[in-house]
Design brief:
single chain, about 450 residues, Rossmann fold, 7-stranded mixed beta sheet, 15 helices, binds nicotinamide-adenine-dinucleotide, 3-oxoacyl-ACP reductase, SDR_fam, NAD(P)-bd_dom_sf, KR_dom
Length: about 450
């Protein structure tokens, strides 16, 4: 079957993240880089409102009903969908459906079809595997086959070139591809919004969630709080949520008041000067949201601090301040907000974790403890949020180009930046795009999980 419904809008143009990436992508830089055997990170295709989701064919592999439903879904989005491919055409994406595997031998046919087209995947192209949740399989053979798809996907992520990525969609047993969360996750992974996400899995666990009328404004009419919004990733989140249609309440400490006011003005939102560790922080947020906006839909716990020291030199102040800001404040604020009527209609919470919380990091026992704690908090809070048709998730950034990482010693920074499958650091907007997706109604089927935005960092799971 070849079904075509080409889009008229062009896809977004790739943009380099740093000077080295820009340099090695010039003609001269490419020649020098090749001669010296240097890595050549590719400029990544990032989301631009109005741009096409993909500008070439998307191949859907697999003979299951899930594969057929996904092919139909992509067609409805105006994509050029193929179920088979003969020639040497460049592919924008491949969706490989492994949802029916029940023994390791079941993988081979689709794997070999994928292998046959891997070289045809375009720069910044996408491979998305679809599998059933391994945890739900009691039979050793079934679970082995499902876990095998995870290993395949992660390794493929490491083999992708030119800014292309590989990620997986994990479907809970009873769900079919008609669940809104499946469309939400597939669209995120196909789009430039997931530019710095590779080797990761997004689970869809329920039929919750709704698809937006306008995919470029999925948060239209919603009110979102962003903590730590005065600069860095928080400011990028505020801008992205605004672009996606939300009204933003920008929160930061009084000492950052000027920068906070400037971000709040820029996004046409309101500023709330608040230390999130204050006992009454939850009350202050509710009061502000009620009085200034009349509603509250989304809370992004982004504010965070580091106070790095080896454990042997750790003191009470360094330990307790990091735990207080990065973890205890979130727990306290969530408790207060979830007890309120204002935040009870499909509420969304997204917390900033870190890959340090997954892999550990020398000198960061306090920070890694706080960030691993955040992951525990979101997993344990998911049932309570679900009872209100809401979700809670965490985002774990890897190396992101911020003021903080700009201050690292040059060589350490250069090494950290290249130690991932995309050979480059992410931008604050990459984290913001993932946060905005998880905050959106289309992500309603995904809760309790931590999604890494790290270019598939070599460190950690
Ligand atoms: P940043 O230091 O640039 O900004 C953090 C903001 O939080 C600041 O504006 C600060 O004033 C605010 N803040 C701190 N304590 C506060 C408090 N008690 N109350 C209210 N606001 C407070 O940090 P960033 O690099 O933009 O990081 C944002 C989040 O992402 C943090 O949670 C951080 O741990 C996480 N993260 C960052 C990276 C990275 O590479 N930059 C990597 C992994 C995780």
């Amino acid at each position: 079957m070849t079904q075509r419904s080409p889009q008229s809008r062009p896809a977004a143009q790739p943009r380099p993240t740093d000077a080295y990436t820009a340099l090695v992508n010039t003609e001269l830089g490419r020649r020098i880089g090749r001669a010296l055997g240097l890595p050549r990170p590719a400029p990544l295709r990032r989301h631009t409102p109005g741009a096409a989701l993909a500008d070439g064919p998307v191949l859907v592999l697999g003979e299951t009903s899930v594969a057929e439903d996904i092919a139909q879904l992509l067609l409805r989005w105006g994509l050029d969908v193929r179920r088979h491919i003969g020639g040497e055409e460049r592919l924008s994406g491949v969706v490989a459906c492994f949802d029916a595997v029940s023994a390791p031998g079941d993988l081979q046919e689709t794997v070999l079809r994928l292998a046959g087209v891997q070289r045809q995947i375009a720069p910044s192209g996408r491979v998305i595997t679809v599998l059933r949740d391994p945890q739900e399989a009691r039979d050793p053979s079934v679970r082995a086959a499902r876990r095998a798809v995870e290993g395949l996907t992660r390794s493929l992520g490491r083999e992708m070139r030119a800014g292309a990525t590989a990620n997986g969609v994990v479907l809970q047993e009873s769900l079919d591809a008609a669940a809104p969360g499946v469309a939400g996750v597939l669209r995120f992974l196909l789009s430039g919004r997931s530019a710095f996400v590779s080797g990761q899995f997004l689970s869809v666990d329920s039929v919750n969630g709704t698809l937006p009328e306008d995919w470029d404004r999925p948060l239209a009419g919603q009110v979102a709080v962003v903590t730590g919004a005065a600069r860095g990733i928080g400011a990028a989140i505020a801008r992205t949520l605004r672009r996606d249609g939300a009204q933003v309440i920008a929160v930061d400490v009084p000492a950052a008041g000027e920068a906070l006011a400037s971000v709040a003005n820029e996004v046409g939102g309101t500023a709330l000067q608040l230390d999130i560790t204050a006992e009454d922080a939850g009350d202050r947020i509710l009061e502000h949201a009620e009085q200034r906006h009349g509603r509250l839909d989304v809370v992004i716990h982004n504010a965070g601090i580091t106070r790095d020291k080896l454990l042997a030199h750790m003191d009470a102040s360094r330990w307790s301040s990091v735990i207080a800001v990065n973890l205890e404040a979130q727990l306290r604020i969530n408790r207060r907000l979830l007890a309120s009527e204002l935040f009870s209609h499909a509420p969304r919470i997204v917390s900033l974790a870190s890959t340090s919380g997954i892999a550990g990091n020398r000198g960061q026992t306090n920070y890694a403890a706080s960030k691993a704690g955040v992951m525990g908090m979101v997993a344990a809070s998911a049932p309570e949020l679900e009872s209100r048709h809401g979700t809670i998730n965490a985002v774990a950034p890897g190396f992101i180009e911020t003021e903080m990482t700009a201050k690292m010693p040059t060589i350490a920074r250069e090494v950290a930046r290249r130690l991932n499958s995309l050979s480059q650091g992410g931008l604050p907007e990459d984290v913001a795009e993932t946060v905005a997706f998880l905050a959106s109604p289309a992500a309603g089927g995904t809760s309790g999980m931590t999604l890494r935005v790290c270019g598939q960092n070599l460190i950690g799971a």
